[in-house]
């Protein structure tokens, strides 16, 4: 039987639809019975959403200008 | 005075402009694609070498883009070039990326179960009920940036490519030279870290 800790290990696989049909069914059954795991999965899903909007490098202007200058030079041939 | 040029929104139009050597198109592409290219390079190299490789790649792309046939998207193509250049550097220096993927559970989550595997310290909040408020909270956004910057470099690169740049898992595995299961661990660990950070922030108001 799937325990809460097992579900926590594969939480992202469930969210991203990476589980086999049988494992996906086991997770769904567990979630029907366990409100803590429903919270965990909901929170993990929100964490992924938060990262989508934030997980990027903010490049400093000086570096971007350096990249543009080297391209300009290369374009001149 | 030069008229401001419009941003090219379509990938194939951008490729055509790059192939025609349009300077403005290159400047747009630099700002759009360099963060992701740097994420790839930082996976393999130290920050300074990573910046150098991204710069070398752009210089190389000025000519190489003329042969771009569109078999993959422009972003994926650029990321692959950066990855190959990084791997060549490592090969020349006779070095390898040290890979430590570890357990699927973050220690902060793993310690919250009793020995039988049930929750001993269950999730304290339901973030989904607060999602919109969370996104509007400036202090939380700052805290999120801080924690994302503090992720181990490999986790951060994987998360950036998978979550922020919306690459398919298969593409991330190719670019970073890792197996699908290792990518799953990197992404899952990063999500748990952010989850624990938000939970803590919601409870204490501190980052």
UniProtKB/TrEMBL annotation, chain A:
Molecular-function annotations in GO: zinc ion binding
Pfam families: zf-HC2
Keyword Zinc: yes
Domain Putative zinc-finger stretches: 12-38
Protein name: Putative zinc-finger
Organism: Marinobacter segnicrescens
Record flagged with keyword Nuclease: no
Entry keyword set: Metal-binding, Zinc, Zinc-finger
Xref: InterPro entries: Anti_sigma_zinc_sf, Znf_put
TrEMBL record, chain B:
Keyword check for Transcription: yes
Domain RNA polymerase sigma-70 region: 30-95
InterPro entries: RNA_pol_sigma-70-like (IPR039425), RNA_pol_sigma-70_dom (IPR014284), RNA_pol_sigma70_r2 (IPR007627), RNA_pol_sigma70_r4_t2 (IPR013249), RNA_pol_sigma_r2 (IPR013325), RNA_pol_sigma_r3/r4-like (IPR013324), WH-like_DNA-bd_sf (IPR036388)
GO BP, sorted A to Z: DNA-templated transcription initiation
CDD domains (alphabetical): Sigma70_r4 (cd06171)
Gene3D superfamilies per the UniProt record, alphabetical: 1.10.1740.10, Winged helix-like DNA-binding domain superfamily/Winged helix DNA-binding domain
GO molecular function: DNA binding; sigma factor activity
Top-level lineage group: Bacteria
Protein name per its UniProtKB record: RNA polymerase sigma-70 factor, ECF subfamily
Originating species: Marinobacter segnicrescens
């Amino acid at each position: 039987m799937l325990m809460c800790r097992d579900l926590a290990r594969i939480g992202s696989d469930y969210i991203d639809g990476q589980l086999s049909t049988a494992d996906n069914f086991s997770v769904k059954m567990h979630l029907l019975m366990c409100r803590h795991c429903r919270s965990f999965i909901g929170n993990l899903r929100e964490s992924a959403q938060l990262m989508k909007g934030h997980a990027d490098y903010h490049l400093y202007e000086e570096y971007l200008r350096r990249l543009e200058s080297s391209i300009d030079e290369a374009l001149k041939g | 005075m030069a008229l401001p040029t419009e941003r090219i929104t379509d990938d194939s139009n951008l490729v055509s402009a790059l192939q025609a050597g349009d300077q403005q198109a290159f400047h747009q592409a630099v700002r759009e694609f360099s963060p992701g290219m740097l994420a790839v390079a930082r996976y393999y190299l130290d920050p300074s070498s990573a910046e150098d490789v991204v710069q070398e790649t752009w210089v190389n792309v000025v000519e190489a883009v003329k042969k771009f046939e569109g078999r993959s998207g422009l972003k994926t193509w650029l990321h692959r070039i950066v990855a190959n250049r990084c791997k060549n550097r490592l090969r020349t220096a006779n070095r390898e990326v040290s890979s430590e993927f570890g357990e699927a559970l973050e220690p902060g989550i793993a310690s919250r179960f009793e020995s039988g595997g049930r929750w001993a310290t269950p999730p304290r909040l339901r973030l989904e009920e607060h999602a919109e408020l969370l996104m509007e909270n400036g202090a939380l956004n700052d805290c999120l940036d801080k924690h994302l910057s503090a992720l181990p470099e490999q986790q951060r690169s994987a998360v950036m490519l998978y979550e922020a740049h919306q690459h398919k898992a298969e593409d991330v595995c190719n670019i970073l030279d890792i197996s699908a299961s290792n990518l799953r661990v990197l992404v899952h660990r990063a999500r748990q870290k952010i989850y624990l950070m938000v939970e803590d922030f919601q409870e204490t108001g501190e980052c």
